[in-house]
Amino acid sequence: MGLLTEGQPLSWDETKQLADHVRQHGIDQFLNLYHQLLDRKGDVLKWGDEVEYIIVKFDHINKTAKVRLCAQDILAQLNEKEANDPHNVKSLWRPEYGAYMIEGTPGKPYGGLLAHFNIVEANMRYRREEAQQLLGPDEVLMTITNFPRLGCPEFTWPVDQPTPKIGPSRSLFIPDSAIYKGHPRFSTLTRNIRQRRGERVAINIPIFKDENTPSPFEEDLISIGGDTDSLNAALPDHVYMDAMAFGMGCCCLQMTFQACCIKEARTLYDQLTPLCPILLALTAASPVFRGYLTDVDCRWNVISGSVDCRTRQERGLEPLTTDKFVIPKSRYDSTTLYLSSQGEKFNDVPLVYDETIYNKLKSADIDHQMAQHVAHLFIRDTVSLFNEKVHQDDTVEMDHFENIQSTNWQTMRFKPPPPKSTIGWRVEFRPCEVQLTDFENAAIVCFVVLLTRVILSYQLNFLIPISKVDENMSKAQKRSAALTEKFWFRKNIAASTSKTANVNVNSSNDDASYTQMSINEIINGKTGEFPGLIPLIHSYLSSMEVDTDTHCTIQQYLKLISRRASGQIDTTASWIRRFVQDHPAYKRDSVVSDEINYDLLMTADGIRSGRISCPRLLGDCLLANSKTKETIPPAVQKVYSCTP
Amino acid sequence: MPYDIPKTVSKIYIHTGNVLNANELTQKAGQNATEEVVECLSICLSKYPSPFALNEKTVHLKCDECYNNDNEEDLALKTSVKIFLTTNEVDVLEDSLKNLFKELNEEVVDSVILAFNHGKDTLLADLLTLWSILEGYVNKQKITRIGVSDIDTDLFISLYNNSIIKPTIVQINLNSCCVVPEALQEFTKDNEIQLLTHSDSKEILPQSCLAEVFGDQTELKQKIPKLEWMIRYLTHVKCRGVLASKGYIVCLKRS
Known about the structure:
The complex is a heterodimer.
Chain A: H1 12-17, H2 19-37, E1 47-59, E2 64-68, H3 71-84, E3 91-95, E4 101-106, H4 120-132, E5 139-142, E6 156-157, H5 184-197, E7 203-206, H6 228-233, E8 238-241, H7 245-248, E9 253-258, H8 262-272, H9 276-283, E10 288-289, E11 292-293, H10 300-306, E12 332-333, H11 355-363, H12 368-377, H13 399-405, E13 409-410, E14 412-415, E15 426-429, H14 438-458, H15 466-476, H16 481-484, E16 486-490, H17 499-502, E17 514-518, H18 519-524, H19 533-542, H20 548-566, H21 572-582, H22 594-609, H23 615-618, H24 634-639
Parallel strand pairs in A: 2-6, 12-13
Antiparallel strand pairs in A: 1-2, 1-4, 1-5, 1-9, 3-4, 7-8, 9-15, 10-11, 14-15, 16-17
Helix pairs in contact in A: 2-13, 4-14, 9-15, 11-12, 14-19, 14-20
Chain B: E1 11-15, H1 23-27, H2 33-47, E2 53-54, E3 58-62, E4 77-85, H3 90-104, E5 109-115, H4 124-139, E6 143-149, H5 153-162, E7 169-173, H6 182-190, E8 194-198, H7 207-214, E9 226-237, E10 242-253
Parallel strand pairs in B: 1-3, 4-5, 5-6, 6-7, 7-8
Antiparallel strand pairs in B: 1-10, 2-3, 4-9, 9-10
């Protein structure tokens, strides 16, 4: 989840006093790097996925499932392999927020051949098996976006109690042992975010009101140690959560692409921005929080609230006296600014940014949009600073810039090349929820990467006013959004560079350039109005050299996505919701009990492994149908040397 | 839109130019290969004001490069070509290759895949005759790799065993990409031949489609030209999975 700097964390008071120091030096570091690397060109496509996993411990006698707090041990073993053979390992493992989570990526990035799409799933399988082998007999590595009973009594193994009055979280629900302790960053962030905010974080997600759900739905917080802070924060008819773990303890599926140059990176950043809510709705996988069925399908707002370090003044609840800005969004939220010249006219949301920083960047020859972007990221204070890293050489180091950059968790991330590396300008796509199976995750990853190739090949334009993207973000999280919501989407996506289209360039900002479409129409097309993302990918593929196995695999992936979009098969969230509601022990009271949780996760693992077939979730795209392979065919490898 | 071609003309060459960013095609993404060719030819003919080279017998039409990729840098590009023949006559293949290099203005083409006229009784000898022409271009270093499309496995193996320059690509229809004949799979694997997919129908540009392009008035039907060969070229940016251009060159014959 971002930069992992080793060292001794400073206290919040010390950190706070150095906020301007970090900002100033962060900007100097950015300026140095930007000017050095602005003209970097000709980088090939490299890309990779990141999958986050939860370790679950099953108790088959008592029918319970708990999160297993063993990530530190597992990671130590996994990282040893990497340390011994850093260039040849097939996977890389990193810590995540939860002491029950790990994050895995391929050992090397994938390259610019179509054949690379066929090794994604095999590598995901390899990773899963590699980590699974290190777990105990009743422990399973799972790709679930949210552990359904996270924050319920005794949800961890070993069992631990929350400590509402002491520790970094001070949660009524989450013991601090659930936070990964192998690195001080996570506890420090937790403490600092809470202290900066001046109170516990407060997340209220509307509960799904079933027949027997009490109305109003209110919980007895006092008996579990609730104080005025929690009593004021908890809303009736909502599932109330009060700790960073509820959000950062969720799992995501992310992808990063290297662009050929900064211009292409800015284009991709912008073009993928309107696709974020669409992919969020399509990958929705988290309808249950803290043991209750909720009225949302996605993790997004939960994470957003879980790291919302804004003070009451910054949230606009009190007049600004000591703070500088009223800030409309949490550090974790959707992007508010397009970066390409094409996107400029669609930036219709007032942007909060630091004017001093903006002016400094402008006078150092950074263009208006990039200066705004950086000055916008830099309205935030550092929330994690290490003693050893306070003083840096701004001509070679980037830690202060990365400190702020990596704690702005937005739907897209624009990533400058690291100093002194062979890596180019990159863009990270961050909205997707993780799916239960490697097949589905590979499908999503390949779909998004293929879309980037389609966008660049046909010079497509998906831009709509950024305010409409924000609207889509909140729609995307609603229950069954993939099936029932309509999203703002651009109608005429064809390149506007043709001679004939140039005539109409001024009219492209018309209301008429976008309309409301269902996920099905966006993905599969609407006759006479919109071609659909999958038909566009098919067109692209028919113009590429694709080997038979890769094409077969991609076809299975596209079939899965097409059917999810059309509602022929369930999204993960709908499937989970249905499973809970059809469970014999479910009392129509929104409660996902230990027993339901156990059965849900056992079934999910059964589907993942292929022991249980589930056409409702996967259609007839049986897992075995993909022709994924561990390596690229030698015949392809021989002709092109695009493997990084 | 019917397009008026002087009666004296017996051969028509049409080059669509780069159609990659044609709005009409983007909006109709997902149409099959034949529909796309028809669309491209129609666009080209509707835009083309008058032939630029005309003599008694042949006419060359080339659509302006209407669509420009705003590539600022020197890109590493490679062009792949597929030649569709309606007859396996040597002259026809030679005519297509001659036009390919003339129209593309390129020194070297990365790969050429031959979609020859599949009769049930396609003889190895006929295929080898065509193949020797491609081999000639490889020897002259005008083409780097050559291959064939939709070929019976046995015939392909014979071609491989009897040719001097071996095919390094074989294309099969996308519909069968999940069920490739085992013999073909093994042979291509053992000999490091690329087994690729295509989504072209058996007859890439049937007469009925040409009728659509040139106007479908019944009384004119006999005057509607027939396809002799068609070339589709695709230019890719190396190692980036990005298309840089795509176009069609078609040769039509009117008897």
